[in-house]
């Protein structure tokens, strides 16, 4: 009887030891699992932070690059206006007073043409209308010049532009539209270009329609990665600086192409 009681107590003690051992192993396993999960989350957060810092660095470099380009444009435009313009004016006076040369009228006309070309280049680099009156006026001027050239029919309509964007934003948008329009004129064989502007509480939308040969989004993305030309890359870079998006589409009837530029609203 005593032997059975001792055996029973030993068996009970062994069961407790097994139970505690099992619980300890489970606790240790869970602890290891939680530690691994916690460590992985820390690694993921660390990698996300590294990516964010890298993206911020790339954005800063891109902003600096665009800013430098615009500063160079402004400097060259100022130099053209201040230095080359007076030089051409002096040359014109010199030719006017020395008409004994062969075909003086043709020479004078060449100087007039060169002077006008310099003025056009200067205004193209930093349109005074954009700086003084805003994006709507600058776009109207650009499209009036296209109409005046007789190349195609161009029109522009702003619907919701009571409050101007920041000048830096307007300049970037102007450059994007300028590049898009140049591409349409050179490559699409379009008969018309029509630009519209709309806005809501959070975004401004610029839409460019034309009836020539165009591209859709997949083709733009492909060309932007493989093209050696700077035009599409400059468009993509400026859109990124604006924190915006750009969409290339063809309407369902395949009668015209549409480019939509979406820019977060940030009033000046």
CATH fold-level assignment of the domain at 127-268 = Heat Shock Protein 90
Level-2 CATH architecture of the domain at 127-268? 2-Layer Sandwich
Poorly predicted segments: none
Helix content: 55-70%
- Count of individual helical segments: 7
Straight-line distance between termini? 98 Å
Can you describe this structure in just a few lines?
The chain has 7 helices and 5 strands. It has 268 residues and is an alpha+beta fold. The chain has a domain at 127-268: 2-Layer Sandwich (Heat Shock Protein 90).
Descriptive keywords:
268 residues, 5 strands, alpha+beta, 7 helices, Heat Shock Protein 90, 5-stranded mixed beta sheet
Structure overview:
With 268 residues, the chain is α+β, with helices and mostly antiparallel strands. It has seven helices and five strands, in the order ααααβαββααββ. A five-stranded mixed β-sheet has the order 1-2-3-5-4. The termini are far apart.
Topology readout:
Blueprint: H1 2-96, H2 104-125, H3 128-133, H4 135-149, E1 153-158, H5 167-188, E2 192-199, E3 203-210, H6 217-226, H7 230-241, E4 245-250, E5 257-264
Parallel strand pairs: 1-2
Antiparallel strand pairs: 2-3, 3-5, 4-5
Helix pairs in contact: 1-2, 1-7, 4-5, 5-7
């Amino acid at each position: 009887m005593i032997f059975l009681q001792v055996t029973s107590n030993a068996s009970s003690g062994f069961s407790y030891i097994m139970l505690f051992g099992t619980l300890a192993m489970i606790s240790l396993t869970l602890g290891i699992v939680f530690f691994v999960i916690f460590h992985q989350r820390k690694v993921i957060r660390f990698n996300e932070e590294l990516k964010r810092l890298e993206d911020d660095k790339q954005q800063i470099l891109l902003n600096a690059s665009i800013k430098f380009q615009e500063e160079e444009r402004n400097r060259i435009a100022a130099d053209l206006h201040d230095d080359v313009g007076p030089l051409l004016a002096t040359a014109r006076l010199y030719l006017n007073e020395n008409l004994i040369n062969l075909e003086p009228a043709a020479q004078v006309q060449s100087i007039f043409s060169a002077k006008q070309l310099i003025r056009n280049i200067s205004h193209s680099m930093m349109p005074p209308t954009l700086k003084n009156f805003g994006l709507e006026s600058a776009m109207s001027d650009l499209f009036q010049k296209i109409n005046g050239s007789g190349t195609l029919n161009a029109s522009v309509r702003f619907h919701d532009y009571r409050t101007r964007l920041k000048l830096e934003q307007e300049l970037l948008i102007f450059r994007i539209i300028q590049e898009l329009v140049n591409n349409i004129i050179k490559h699409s064989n379009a008969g018309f270009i029509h630009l519209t502007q709309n806005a809501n509480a959070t975004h401004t939308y610029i839409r460019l329609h034309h009836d020539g040969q165009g591209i859709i989004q997949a083709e733009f993305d492909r060309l932007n990665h493989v093209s050696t030309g700077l035009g599409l890359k400059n468009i993509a870079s400026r859109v990124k600086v604006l924190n915006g998006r750009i969409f290339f589409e063809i309407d369902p009837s395949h009668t015209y192409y549409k480019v939509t530029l979406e820019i977060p609203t940030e009033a000046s």
